[in-house]
Amino acid sequence: MSPPSRDILSYGSVGAHATSDISAVIIPDPLTCAGVLARRSKAGPLSGGVAAATSSDLFKPKAAWKPKAKKWDHRLSEESKSRTASTLKEAARYLATPGMISLGGGLPSSDYFPFEYIDVKVPTVGKFSEAETAESGKVVRIGKHDVQTGKAAFDLAISLNYGQGTGSAQLLRWLTEHTEIVHDPPYRDWQCVASVGSTSSLDMLYRMFLKRGDYVISEDYTFATAVETASPLGCRMVGVKMDAEGLLPESLDELLMNWDEEARGARRPFLLYTVPSGQNPTGSTQGKKRREDIYKVSQKHDLIIIEDEPYYFLQMQPYMGRDAPAAPLPKTHAEFLSSLVPSLLRMDVDGRVVRLDSFSKVLAPGCRMGWITASEQICERMSRHNEVSVQNPSGFSQVIIHKLLDEEWGHSGYLDWLINLRMEYTQRRDVLLHACEEYLPSEIASWAPPAAGMFHWIKIAVEKHPEFLTRSVKSIEDELFLTAVSEKVLVSPGSWFLADKGVEHKELFFRATFAAAESAAMTEATKRFGVALRKVFKLD
Amino acid sequence: MSPPSRDILSYGSVGAHATSDISAVIIPDPLTCAGVLARRSKAGPLSGGVAAATSSDLFKPKAAWKPKAKKWDHRLSEESKSRTASTLKEAARYLATPGMISLGGGLPSSDYFPFEYIDVKVPTVGKFSEAETAESGKVVRIGKHDVQTGKAAFDLAISLNYGQGTGSAQLLRWLTEHTEIVHDPPYRDWQCVASVGSTSSLDMLYRMFLKRGDYVISEDYTFATAVETASPLGCRMVGVKMDAEGLLPESLDELLMNWDEEARGARRPFLLYTVPSGQNPTGSTQGKKRREDIYKVSQKHDLIIIEDEPYYFLQMQPYMGRDAPAAPLPKTHAEFLSSLVPSLLRMDVDGRVVRLDSFSKVLAPGCRMGWITASEQICERMSRHNEVSVQNPSGFSQVIIHKLLDEEWGHSGYLDWLINLRMEYTQRRDVLLHACEEYLPSEIASWAPPAAGMFHWIKIAVEKHPEFLTRSVKSIEDELFLTAVSEKVLVSPGSWFLADKGVEHKELFFRATFAAAESAAMTEATKRFGVALRKVFKLD
């Protein structure tokens, strides 16, 4: 897109480079970690008091040269369309009048929050391990009245009171900046909204778009919870064929071209749920070209894409084989970011992607905090729903994560943390792959080395089972699962992840994770699984 | 109810007293704070590892002499009925096998949770104010591996990992014990399930019971969010008349007796949403007799009662008037507990009450944590829904609140905290009432002193407005609201809280809160409201 001339950039020219035509728009350089400080100082003090109204728009450029998102009224459910703003939260605007005393709201006084301060011991940047933290970690303090006393931008008196459906201004600012640094969405009116985790967001998005009887499109094998969340809403998944790079765009196109509303008893689906990086359960990662093709098919059929990306930052180093030296780690943040496959959000000129980000796999699941990035319209609907359900993430989570990621590490330190995680997960994956190479019978077990995530997807040549002709794949899967259990190793049968359990599956897979167990235990477990495989397939 | 003989109490006889018939059941004394330790030691070590399955049943007596709850299949929505257990969470049972190594789940390793410990400075029991905490508060530490090292029952490695839809075993044990100490429900199979706050629980309960077009019964004036949560689901509230003690049972009965499905275009409602103590917005508190009568009418019409009780422990001292000495505070925990109006849960022989408890008004709203108490069937449905939406409260919230309420204060110290809050809120209420007596024109403003909660409900004799005959009540309300705003005081107009905004209201109320502002500001605000009233009603 070439920028329209004469447009005015109201956000200013922090880090901008002028074009040769002085009447043209000045397009600023993409935001980097280093540019955040200048932008913040230009934006002025954060308005982040108790239950302060906020929006991503306060923390990003107006970017008048970018197109606006499409409107999704034709896709919204009756439930979502009818949401209105909360009466009481609306009235909060009168509080801005100087001298106003409120007897209006029901916000309790922080006098009665029984916490004077919270100290958290966290790693310093670059020394991230438990051992290093014990030695050189830093204790950061969150006081009750740090904002009032000018010590910090966020405190317990604010974070532990009621908030807004967007999440706090402090958290939202960080989320918006991070999203711009990593994805820089190519349309103008994108926003972020904090969530209590991506499972909750998914539940809310289904309710935003679906009605009973609808289908959701997903990969053939998919995150079991995505299916189990849809099912009580009267909705089923329809799977799209996959290869080692995940969802096949031509199969997606074919499915939609040939959709027979009569035969299916359902309207043509328009909601695509996909996990592009380190997909659960298959561990597959869509390459750039694959994502572009999926996006094109989505445009052709006017789909909304739920891009669920818990493992985006668990993209690992290329797998080099058992005896090869490890690939060198990215040396700079720019190198790190460009090593990541671009997100669907980054190519989303229409505002049709709803991206789900989560801290569960990169900080801790117990944060119960994540965020969505989507068009203003979708974010507004989401935040209305938040107001009358989960409200916002725990104040403890918000203030602790803010203290760590914003005030302590900063964007730059967080990227260092993510590079460290990349290295850790690479090592874990390699341990598991080496064990598989050593202990699994290669005549029946095969796999592609996962490029991202936590999961290793092992294909078992079920047709080599001695009773293959007389038994179902499911019964052989059951036998293998239970034999593995009796050998004291737990692996997850592929059938647990079928998008549509009604469709008979003819292939046999098992999912193993390298996220949890220690190296020695992982190797031992793989050995046991090898024993189980040989027993069931009578290989010795 | 007399206990059946020959029944066996499997929970044991901690604190039990024998009846004269030795073959009869031994009914234990009700649980008290002092009895908790003995019960826990009898129950043995807590099974509270990462994502440990748990249930209230592990923490309460089997109580075979109590009746079982009714079944509610006929009330469950299609959505709720069709929920099934999560495939992956089911598989977790194999983890109990000694020596099992799991490559099955997707739980990340706590090695990568960037928190070594959290220190929290909290008040010591009896010295609860901010000033006292600064002086004599205690710093309590939550380590990452405190369970492994035997230092504590809960730690960061567990609380910050994934959990179960019930909440953690550590939190659930405390919630169950607290509920038994305070309410001792009279049926056998009650349970608790942790929530991310009562607003979220309400949203989930509506979805558990309602279908589009349904009505929910509530007080005539009700919590605006309860209406706004129902409305996008296609459900409306129908209000029941109130007096100074809240909802009138005979009006409830009348409403249901005369329900005309044809005229209403909706089936007879069966879900009653009520705030029995310190109702929002009216501040009214149902007395014991009132609650019994409401329960009886609910039995007659087979209602399910959502008992929303954020203000239960903000029941205050009796109001003694401006110059009378304060009533003496409860001297013992027993005296304190018996000073509280018994809950609907306490009289719930059928298991038809779903009680919502919250930490928002008694610790801090930002905990985003509460719990429901209901029959096993309802709790199981709720926890299934949690699994595919909010999952469980933030691990930070769970572990910090556990550290404070269980390991530091204990049940007994928490009751002391609540007694302290009672005193604080009594003082705040009295300041506001005194200011109202002094500054509001008694010829048009009247009220009943609230016995609980945060709200003061002021009736304005709208018929004394000079233009009453030619103007609507709503236009006079608007004028008064805006005049108050221009006098720089914010109070909430009664019409914001109408259960059914379609019904024209003929009375005029304003809601003021005494929870938030300091004494001097509250008095000044009341003075300003008095000025506004006099201006609008042309009294001077």
Account of the protein in words:
- Two copies of one chain form a homodimer.
- The N and C termini of chain A lie far apart (63 Å).
- Helix content of chain A is 34%, strand content 14%.
- In chain A, the strands form five sheets. Chain A has a five-stranded mixed beta sheet, with helices on both faces.
- The first copy, chain A, is built from 17 helices and 17 strands.
- Chains A and B meet through helix 2, helix 3, strand 1, strand 2 and helix 4 of A and helix 2, helix 3, strand 1, strand 2 and helix 4 of B.
Which sheet architecture does the biggest sheet of chain A show?
5 strands, mixed
Fraction of residues in helix of chain A: 25-40%
* Multimeric organization: homodimer
Question: Helix/strand-derived class of chain A?
Answer: alpha+beta
In the predicted model, the low-confidence regions of chain A spanning at least 5 consecutive residues are 1-22
Number of DSSP E strands of chain A: 17
Largest interface (CB < 8 Å): A-B, 119 and 118 residues
- The Cα radius of gyration of chain A reads 25 Å
| Share of β-strand residues of chain A | 5-15%
Question: Kindly state the mean pLDDT of chain A as a whole number?
Answer: 93
Strand order of the largest sheet of chain A: 4-12-11-10-9
What does the overall shape of chain A look like? globular
Helix count of chain A equals 17
Separation of the first and last Cα atoms of chain A: 63 Å
